[in-house]
Amino acid sequence: MERFSFIFLAAGVACFVFAFAVSAVLPMLPVKDMHVQTIAELAENVPVDFEELAEQYPDAFQKAFGSTQADSETFAKALVRGHKVYVSEACWHCHSQQVRPWGNDEARFGRVAYPEEYHNELNMPPLWGTRRVGPDLSRAAGKQSNDWHVAHFYRPVDVVPWSVMPAYPWFYEKDGKTPNRDGLSIITYVQWLGSWHKTVPESFFHLEEIEDGYEAPAVPKPIIQEPVVEEDVADEDY
């Protein structure tokens, strides 16, 4: 009997290892040839929001990134630092970065998440999150101004009265108004999220653009029946 117990144990362990290997390998097969964007590639297009940060806080910007120019090099530094701050402050614990195909997600946050937006060095591993105490941040880019984020990180309830998000006063200089390196970086990172995804204002004046974003349903071909031609039958056949 002990021999059979060992066999069952070995079989169970083997099945577990096989299932683990399959679950690790199979999901990667459809995207194995997809290009993974580097930090340098992500930073090629410097957004207006980052340029505004350099103009609004020139001294803090210089101190944080060693330059007053909002170029691709300083943008890359800010993205990398902002990503580290986002992870270290456990922002992923209350905010997801995955628009899911259920729960009215698409109506609230935009297009359902797709593989291409996760194939970059800042999403290795992807920060899908564990739950949503706060909203999903996949499409956070440009939804709020830099000033809004500066006020929000310092004291969230000042801009969102029902917010349960904690304050982050260590993101600021001693004056409590000027964001420091971590503050500028996390604002840059949040303003970057979803910047690659085209968004259209949901208003009556943008109906045409909204409709262009959805594929028209396939129209089934009409079924045309050929007319039945009756053959003449001779009288003697009756």
In words, what does this structure look like?
This protein has 238 residues and is mainly alpha-helical. The chain has a domain at 41-193: Cytochrome Bc1 Complex, Chain D, domain 2 (Orthogonal Bundle). It contains 9 helices and no strands. The protein has helices spanning 2-25, 39-42, 48-56, 58-65, 72-88, 105-109, 146-154, 181-192, 207-212. It is extended. 21% of the residues are buried.
Short structural description:
By secondary structure, this protein is mainly alpha-helical. It contains nine helices and no strands. The protein is extended, with a radius of gyration of 28 Å.
- Shape annotation: extended
**DSSP E strands, number:** 0
- What is the quaternary state of this protein? single chain
Instruction: Estimate the helix proportion, in percent.
Output: 25-40%
Instruction: Return the string of H and E elements.
Output: HHHHHHHHH
Counted by DSSP, the helix tally is 9
CATH architecture of one domain: Orthogonal Bundle
Give the helices and strands, then pairings.
Elements lengths: L1 H24 L13 H4 L5 H9 L1 H8 L6 H17 L16 H5 L36 H9 L26 H12 L14 H6 L26
Helix pairs in contact: 3-4, 5-8
Keywords, separated by commas or semicolons:
9 helices; 238 residues; mainly alpha
